[in-house]
Design a protein that fits this description.
There is one protein chain. The longest helix has 31 residues, at 90-120. The chain has helices at residues 3-12, 28-39, 45-50, 58-61, 90-120, 175-182, 213-217, 264-277, 299-310, 318-325, 354-360, and strands at residues 122-124, 130-132, 139-150, 163-170, 189-195, 219-231, 255-262, 288-291, 344-348, 365-368, 380-383, 405-409. β1 and β2 (130-132) form a beta hairpin. The protein is α+β, with helices and mostly antiparallel strands.
Length: 410
């Protein structure tokens, strides 16, 4: 199309001023980009969230705009979501909690990483190799890393369904520390770190500045992973279960290999960046394997559960939805004010037998729809009598000849 036609289309959409030969002219490329940007399909917030890695990377951990350090004085306002008394939707409530909890856990992870790296004292040799002059209880040098499985992509997704890898470390340490590493269980979260420090091995006593920690330590990559289990000397995954401590396999060397699950979203981002920028693959550069205390390391499960709730259509019942978001009268959620009350419930395996059910409701007369005693087996569906509202001080009264009878359906 000619320039004048494109300009008139953009002016009709109120993107640029009307076309005039004397007015300022926009380039044809700019108008085309403007029209494409106006009509292109926008990604939903939920789709972007599903493609976001749950583990923090090195770019987020030391980004002062996202995670302020301890030097934050409080003079400026932080762009953080607020937890108010009212929320627009349930998605808004979960999203605010997800972002705040992710930032809080990111700050704690950064402190643990800085503590372990400071204790390990990574230095660069004149030959360009990285050596560690110290040691840390929560971190070990990586002896080997390999990606063993990349799952297929699910329909409608752009990342693999799972990514498995093996991490090998040498536990030539105190027996108590070795026991702690061998006690890593399934679903424990660890971190793989690539460091290439700027500090030379000659200057052993150099002090690492807090503000320039990442530059001096040369932290290039940080990737989170989830422990799936430890491998035995034959390369088989050690299954945890009853009697695991008694039948624990014996090792003839200090090397231990852990099977870990990488973040599929982060793995896909790394592969795309490697293909576009022709950089070295991130997973071939890891040289530190870091673990955290189990009591402080549940952030991944919380973030994953919150994200799954945001992908669920119904999370809370309709009768408490508005109260949960901070609207309406809280007393409206009382069962006496519900418009429609359900009197029949499936108790599944709550009751062990018919006698157990009768003993649980001594104030009612229990009637079963099946008279055969052999057919009166759980699970049971119990129908309670309808409660009629009265004007007594107690608020609720039950009247009628069948007010004390409950019906049981096996």
């Amino acid at each position: 199309l000619p320039y004048e036609t494109l300009h008139n289309i953009a002016a009709y959409l109120c993107l640029v001023p009307p076309y005039d030969s004397d007015s300022e002219k926009f380039s044809k490329v700019f108008i085309i980009e403007l029209l494409v940007s106006h009509h292109e399909r926008r990604k939903s917030q939920l789709d972007i969230l599903n493609q976001t890695p749950l583990y923090p990377s090195q770019d987020i951990l030391w980004n002062e705009n996202i995670v302020p350090s301890a030097y934050y004085s409080g003079e400026s306002c932080l762009a953080l979501p607020k937890l108010n008394l009212q929320f627009l939707t349930l998605h808004d409530y979960l999203l605010r909690n997800l972002q705040l909890f992710k930032l809080e856990s990111t700050y704690e992870i950064r402190l643990d990483i800085e503590d372990s790296l400071t204790r390990m004292k990574p230095r660069i040799t004149p030959q360009g190799d990285v050596i560690f002059l110290g040691w840390a209880r929560m971190a070990q040098k990586v002896q080997g890393f390999s990606v063993v499985e990349v799952g297929r992509t699910n329909v409608g997704e752009s990342w693999p369904c799972r990514v498995r890898a093996d991490v090998t470390v040498n536990l030539h340490v105190h027996p108590d520390v070795r026991t702690e590493w061998e006690s890593l269980r399934k679903h424990d979260v660890c971190f793989l770190i690539t460091v290439y420090p700027t500090l030379s091995v000659v200057n052993i006593d150099d002090v690492v500045e807090k503000k320039n920690f990442r530059e001096q330590m040369g932290v290039r990559y940080i990737r989170g992973c989830e422990i799936e289990g430890m491998l035995d000397e034959e390369g088989k995954l050690i299954e945890e279960g009853p009697g695991f401590s008694d039948n624990k396999p014996k090792f003839t060397s200090n090397e231990r290999t852990f099977r870990v699950l990488m973040d599929p979203n982060q793995y896909q981002l790394d592969m795309n960046r490697t293909l576009k920028q022709s950089e070295d693959e991130v997973h071939n550069t890891f040289n530190i394997f870091l673990r955290r205390k189990p009591k402080e390391n549940n952030f991944k499960a919380v973030l994953e559960t919150t994200r799954e709730l945001m992908n669920t259509e119904c999370v809370v019942p309709a009768w408490i939805h508005n109260i949960f978001l901070g609207y309406g009268d809280p007393s409206d959620a009382n069962y006496t004010r519900l418009a429609q009350s359900n009197h029949s419930f499936d108790f599944n395996d709550t009751f062990l037998s018919m006698e157990h059910l009768i003993q649980s409701f001594p104030q009612y007369t229990v009637r079963c729809v099946r008279e055969d005693p052999d057919a009166q087996v759980p699970p049971f569906r119990v129908t309670f009598p309808e409660i009629r509202r009265g004007r007594q001080l107690d608020g609720i009264v039950s009247t009628g000849p069948e007010s004390d009878i409950i019906i049981v359906e096996p």
